[in-house]
Write a structure and sequence with these properties.
By secondary structure, the chain is an alpha/beta fold. The protein has one domain: RutC-like (60s Ribosomal Protein L30, Chain: A, 2-Layer Sandwich), CATH 3.30.1330. Strands 3-2-4-1-5 form a 5-stranded mixed sheet, with helices on one face. It is globular, with a radius of gyration of 14 Å.
Length: 123
């Protein structure tokens, strides 16, 4: 089993933006890592406390992740931390090594792990 991490930010605390951003994050993780949906074990989401219009797991259910464990939590508040951020950790059944996985950080979330984001994507 491996873990795949990712994060994305939104501009506004709306149901539509949270769902669309979460779907974009999940789909980007899937395509970048060639994931088979049947091998996803669970997804754990966290959001900063300024996002409260919908749980990001709703986006996963909309993408047909209906038979896996989905959890939502509030992200720990840190002084000067990134705002309006959705994070995910996907547990995945794979023979790949952890260092073969591409973690995905989009929009302002690239600030969280610049070491994992190619320089040309750090905008």
């Amino acid at each position: 089993m491996i873990s795949i991490r990712g994060a994305i930010t939104v501009e506004n605390n709306t149901k539509t933006e949270i769902i669309n951003a979460t779907k974009r994050l999940i789909k980007t993780i899937e395509s970048t890592n060639n994931l088979n949906q049947d091998k996803v074990i669970s997804m754990i989401f966290s959001c900063t406390n300024d996002l409260n219009k919908v749980a990001p797991s709703k986006a996963a259910r909309d993408l047909d992740y209906t038979h896996i464990g989905l959890m939502n939590f509030n992200e720990m508040q840190v002084d000067n931390g990134l705002q309006k951020c959705i994070r995910v950790m996907i547990l995945y059944d794979s023979d790949k090594q952890q260092n073969e996985i591409k973690h995905i950080y989009l929009k302002k979330a690239v600030k969280l792990r610049p070491d994992l984001v190619p320089k040309d994507k750090q905008k």
